[in-house]
């Protein structure tokens, strides 16, 4: 299974939006269910380092990354620097006490994963957070540098995605935490939401929009469907656009509300969140009446895509209030 929704541009992008919002809820649900069944949802220290192959990548890395950052160590038996780095990462995985999970991938046996991540040489270390790939470092690295990188990773995972890691119990049976998480019952809309995700992955934006709307018809407050719909509609709006023409129009026509709105959509899809927000806030400041309201409503839609708790949304809301009043 090749990795889905991978982005090497950074840990926060469109594909991460939905995963970031659902990650905390899924982790809390798993812990609550494990506690109800009499367990703490705790894992053994032995569970903090796992071997991963292509067949188990989605289960062992993508799914697990919605509850804990997963650090990937690309290695090979013949690689001498790997033999120096891997034991350090394994020791730190235990020392960090569940704040990240270490997944070891043998590149000789998993060429497809190596290609998907764009690995040019080993050792190479990546992280996956809420389903998104982030390159950490390649080649030899000192322990101080590794610790600094890991500290930044776990901080981003907690602050931006609500991922507080795994509970570790030295007395827990190896594999027990995984079984507790797998026993969590499916939600009433999981099938519809999964259908929407599959539609997004296959490029069927209309199908994804309809699937999310089906969920919202029965459960108007469903947060995953709300976010998913906002993302799918955004992707629909930019489909087929000529980015060069859109940006040229926006630059030449600063007073053209539609030109600025379309350019903001492209900014957001490209990962330029602050640029998208700033463009529309400036447009709000120089418009009035129906034009201003049109821009304001589109900006609120973009806030939905990124998520209300994102610090960039919080800052943009304050800036919007200043522009309005």
TrEMBL record:
Thioredoxin domain boundaries: 21-155
CDD domains, per the entry: ybbN
One biological process term in Gene Ontology: response to stress
Taxonomic superkingdom: Bacteria
Keyword Nuclease: no
InterPro entries in alphabetical order: Thioredoxin-like_sf (IPR036249), Thioredoxin_domain (IPR013766), TPR-like_helical_dom_sf (IPR011990)
One matching Pfam family: TPR_20
UniProt-recorded Gene Ontology molecular function terms: protein-disulfide reductase activity
GO cellular component: cytoplasm
Record's protein name: Thioredoxin
């Amino acid at each position: 299974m090749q990795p889905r929704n991978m982005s090497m541009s950074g840990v926060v992008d469109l594909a991460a939006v939905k995963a970031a919002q659902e990650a905390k809820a899924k982790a809390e649900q798993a812990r609550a269910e494990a506690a109800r069944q009499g367990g703490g949802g705790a894992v053994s220290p032995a569970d903090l380092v796992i071997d991963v192959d292509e067949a188990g990548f989605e289960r062992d890395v993508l799914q697990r990354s919605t509850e804990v950052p997963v650090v990937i160590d690309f290695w090979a038996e013949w690689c001498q620097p790997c033999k120096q780095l891997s034991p350090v990462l394994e020791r730190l995985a235990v020392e960090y006490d569940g704040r990240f999970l270490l997944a070891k991938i043998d590149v000789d046996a998993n060429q497809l994963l190596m290609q998907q991540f764009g690995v040019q040489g080993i050792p190479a270390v990546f992280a996956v957070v809420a389903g998104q790939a982030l390159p950490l470092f390649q080649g030899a690295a000192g322990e101080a540098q590794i610790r600094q990188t890991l500290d930044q990773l776990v901080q981003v995972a907690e602050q931006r995605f609500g991922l507080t890691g795994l509970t570790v119990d030295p007395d827990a049976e190896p594999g027990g935490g995984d079984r507790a998480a797998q026993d969590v019952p499916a939600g009433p809309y999981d099938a519809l939401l999964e259908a929407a995700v599959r539609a997004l992955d296959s490029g069927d934006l209309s199908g994804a929009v309809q699937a999310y709307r089906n969920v919202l018809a029965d459960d108007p407050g469903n947060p995953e469907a709300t976010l998913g719909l906002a993302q799918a509609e955004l992707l629909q709006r930019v489909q087929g656009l000529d980015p060069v023409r859109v940006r040229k129009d926006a630059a030449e026509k600063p007073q053209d509300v539609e030109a600025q709105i379309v350019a903001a959509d492209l900014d957001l899809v490209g990962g330029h969140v602050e640029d998208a927000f700033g463009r529309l806030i400036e447009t709000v400041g120089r418009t009035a009446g129906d034009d201003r309201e049109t821009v304001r409503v589109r900006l609120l839609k973009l806030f939905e895509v990124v998520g209300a708790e994102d610090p960039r949304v919080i800052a943009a809301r304050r800036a919007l209030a200043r522009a309005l009043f």
